[in-house]
Amino acid sequence: MSAQQLVNQLRSFLPPDAVLHETEDLKPYECDGLSAYRQLPMIVVLPQTEEQIVKILQLCYATQTPVVARGAGTGLSGGALPHAQGVLLSLAKLKQIIAIDPLARTARVQPGVRNLAISEAAAPYGLYYAPDPSSQIACSIGGNVAENSGGVHCLKYGLTVHNILKLRVLTIDGECLEIGGDSLDSAGYDLLALMTGSEGMLGIVTEITVKLIPKPEKAQLVMAAFDDVQKAGSAVASVIGAGIIPAGMEMMDKITIHAVEEFLHAGYDLNAEAILLCESDGSTEEVADEIRRIHAIMQQSGATNISTSNNEAERLKFWAGRKAAFPVAGRVSPDYYCMDGTIPRKRLADVLRGIEELSQEYGLRCMNVFHAGDGNLHPLILYDANKPGELERTEEFGGKILEMCIHAGGTITGEHGVGMEKINQMCSQFGAGELAMFHAVKAAFDPAGLLNPGKAVPELHRCAEMGAMHVHRGEQKFAELPRF
Amino acid sequence: MQTTIDQYQAVIRAAAESKTPLRIRGGGTKDFYGNPAAEQNSTLLDMTDYNGIVDYEPTELVITARAGTRLADLEVELDRHGQMLAFEPPHFGSAATLGGCVAAGLSGPRRAAAGSVRDFVLGVRLLDGKGEDLHFGGQVMKNVAGYDVSRLMAGSMGTLGVLLEVSLKVLPKPAIETTLCMAMDEAAAIEKMNQWAGKPLPVSATCFADGQLFVRLSGAEPAVRAAQVKLGGETLVDDMVFWRSVREHTHGFFQPDKPLWRLSIKSTTPSLLLAGRQLLEWNGGLRWLSTDDGEDAEAIRAAAKEAGGHATLFRHNKSGISVFHPLPSGMMKIHRALKEKFDPSGILNPGRLYSEI
Fold first, then answer.
1. Do the interacting molecules here have an ipTM over 0.90?
2. Torsion over CA of A148, A149, A151 and A154, rounded to 10 degrees?
3. Which CATH number characterizes residue A171's domain?
4. To the nearest whole number, what is the mean pLDDT of chain A?
5. pTM of the entire structure?
């Protein structure tokens, strides 16, 4: 079927402005947050109801047309990169908070609802939705489900998979499945876990029931500076070893500290080799007790400088630098290249040393920010794409970092997803048997392979190539959004 | 000498070849659970021999152990480092193994506060129905590479793969725990449990039985003491014994030989008017129903469905009906398709979860 025929069919049940096919109208959808990868879709559809989505899927299924789902388009791995012969299915117009049940502590929402909007709607009841990716003012809950998004508080409060109860999912042939329940578990296989983080490859989520949790009475932050990365790493282990699960625990290295301090004046110690931010939340009594213990551990671990936030404004100021690390990287360097590996925490010092060595070998600076509590490392390689050969060196450097994460017993992606970006590194992390099983899982839901084809799981013949994420100054969408 | 992976693979391949069902078994403590495995023309695959902790670094909050490792041994080792399995799994006998715990997917009293077994699974190594040795997930907290096959294993009753190793997230044990006990009726208890769950209180378990609400508080001493003052009630002596009896079904409520239903439903559901006696956990989200023989399964399942959940005939299935709540046809289609991919010959615990898989 030609594009025009498909457009006509779509317009038979969708309003004219919900079907886009002129190049100028398609342009805003050519990439997601990973702007290095661009592709115009054949058609963009903007349905407003589940019923419309069913019809869209039935039509695409009948005509064997690929379908790529898209939420807010803030994803960083190219998961929503359009398909040239496909329909881009935007869920942005499904942005209704259907119901909040304060006593049961749940919210039923449509996929286009922004992450932060859920917490805002729940706030009058003293409740909130815990996973808080730093892009939460813009990213959609449907996208969070597709990527199993985390945030800075996930060691204590979990990822998306731990905070959702039920999904309404449409399979490619338009059949509606209710996965999960209003209960804490459901009959049969745990398809809720399988759907979460499946990057739009298994089905289209049309409704999500999320868990809400009570807002802690209080949050307080300890900021500790160290003259040695190893000591900071040991301090993290000591906090955990003392039986404390901090609400958030973040580390920045020297180059990051300098870069963010210059722009934000968050009060970071410029002599430090590493800074740890360690947050406690809970009841007033609990926080007072925990902060006292964290402070003592930082002291015993050899911190050279320790500050504790005295009020909410100060807590947010300490956080500001950390949250701005990515926008700042875009200011200090024409381009940066972001990695998202996770490693066992005990290997942190080795991995950082390895990155430092590679940095010298390649003559490229690298900022390191680290979700220290859960081992998720975000090295940012700073480079200039206009300098001949620098981009290629950066790619090679990045590839070696990911290899290092795998060798350290970790993974190539902690929270950004594989998408298009890391599809080649999947070959390093998994063997042929596992990759074949991933393809089989997809086929169980989508035998014709129409949902987001070519993403997340590489074909075995692809496995020799390399790929990477490149952020060009001014080209990244939402460049000023706090990230990670 | 420990059975090697090669030997397990050989057994699976031979079974696949001859289409002989395998009954995968750990300590056998959950033999009662699920639909009965066909004894005839099937082969027992005993996993108890494949045991031992592979890796445990307390400060990483991760333990990796072989599937045949006894749950009790695992918990002793964690306890030595002040840590625990936060989902508080029921053992149902001293021989319970890690593999059986994950395959059954059952969690205990702390579940509503801390999460379920699947929430703590980080990675698995398994043999599929073709004997392929596969690794999914890993030993790190955050990992979005590939579909989450490891969590899919939790509660799959051995129908998708033979678990070899499991990595679990572990948590520090709370500094102190204390249990409050207060008399009230069921409707008031359901209301209270849910109200408290919406407040920043260190409630780690709730149970309502025989007109008494039991509330366990866990955490740092000042937090627990402050909550105790807020909530009131009497302090329960020997509370560890009480929670163990609820978890292990040795509490007087659990009658030998009476059909026992497990209803997992929306926690705020008002009192369910079903014949029999009930014990509530998880803020009302879990309701155990002890019935006399010949109760109306249809009515019980309809009530659970109406309440947003499902009903399992947990013990003493005398009528031979499906133990697990029937699935809608669209869901069963996906289940069959997954089973077909993981176990094309249909030899891994066939029928234990549903007759179709």
1. yes
2. -10
3. 3.30.465.10
4. 92
5. 0.95
